[in-house]
Amino acid sequence: MIDQSYKRELLYRKALGKIVFHLYKGKIQFLLDKEVNDSLFLDLFQTDCLITKLTEGIKISTEHFEFATTRKCFEFVSSTIIAGNYFLLIDADWRYCGAYTHEVPPILNPTFDFNKFHSDEIRLISADFSTEITIDYSDTHNTKLFELRICKYHPA
């Protein structure tokens, strides 16, 4: 049973989601370089449950990498992704719009412009909760840096 304060929080987040959904959908569409299917968005409760399930897993390993270009970073990510379904979460927008389910290993568009989309984080979570891939982007004094973290989990 969901308590009343959580229900209110979900309603508030859903209302904010209506404001940012179009932009969030545009980010996803450009990142995946394909049409976005609205039916593949998880609702906010389902999204919260997937985050909870991931954090309940036992972290086995963490690897860190740095890249200077989007292309190099995305090529590396694509080479490490194992076939299967993934949940995609971008920036904080997922908190208001929900995670996006990608049915095959995502091929990330190397021309994705983090600055244009005011984006700084991309997260991919495997549907079996064994892998979380996080790309953190920063641009300091026109020096771009892509920090990649790959965490492996033993699901709870």
Keywords:
6-stranded antiparallel beta sheet, 156 residues
Strand order of the largest sheet: 1-6-5-4-2-3
Helix content: 25-40%
What's the number of helices? 4
For the residues shown, what is the average pLDDT? 91
Order of helices and strands: HHEHEHEEEE
Helix/strand/pairing category: alpha+beta
Described by strand count, sense and barrel closure, the largest sheet is: 6 strands, antiparallel
How many strand elements? 6
Q: Tell me, what's the shape?
A: globular
Poorly predicted parts:
none
Whole-Å distance between the termini? 21 Å
Strand portion? 25-35%
Rg of Cα set: 16 Å
Lay out the secondary structure.
Elements (H helix, E strand, L loop, with lengths): L3 H29 L11 H13 L1 E10 L2 H11 L5 E5 L3 H4 L2 E3 L18 E6 L4 E10 L2 E12 L2
Describe this structure in words.
This protein is of the alpha+beta class and 156 residues long. Helix content is 37%, strand content 29%. The protein contains four helices and six strands. It has helices at residues 4-32, 44-56, 70-80, 94-97, and strands at 58-67, 86-90, 100-102, 121-126, 131-140, 143-154. Strands 1-6-5-4-2-3 form a six-stranded antiparallel β-sheet. Strand 4 (121-126) and strand 5 form a beta hairpin. The longest helix is centred in the first third of the chain and has 29 residues, at 4-32.
What's a concise summary of this model?
The protein has about 160 residues and is of the alpha+beta class.
